[in-house]
What we know:
Layout (H helix, E strand, L loop, with lengths): L22 H13 L2 H8 E3 L9 H14 L4 H8 L3 H6 L11 H10 E3 L1
Antiparallel strand pairs: 1-2
Amino acid sequence: MIPDSCIEVHTTPLDRPSVPVWFAEVVILARHLATTGLLEAFADQVHLRRGRFGTYETIDFLALLVGYAISGERTLSDFFECVAPFETAFMALFGRSSLPHRSRALVASWLMSIVLA
């Protein structure tokens, strides 16, 4: 080990989750979608049939779909557990404040209610 006076290591007994390895890929993709206008186009041109969606928008679905696909998690439930500590940062990449509810029924109903404008 090479000593370096510029490096300081701090430890704590508190349990802190580490950022998932796939998070950087989501950052890159979300940034690309935003800078090319594709994120805005998706939000404007894809609509959900209103029902019991509350404050959820199509962009919430896109964020969920992108994150789940890139994460490689086996199930949606596993994805939600993995992203939970970073939910605010994850959704901020897509201009939103929180992930949609974990309910499989809600996600399934989203899949069946997407319509192109």
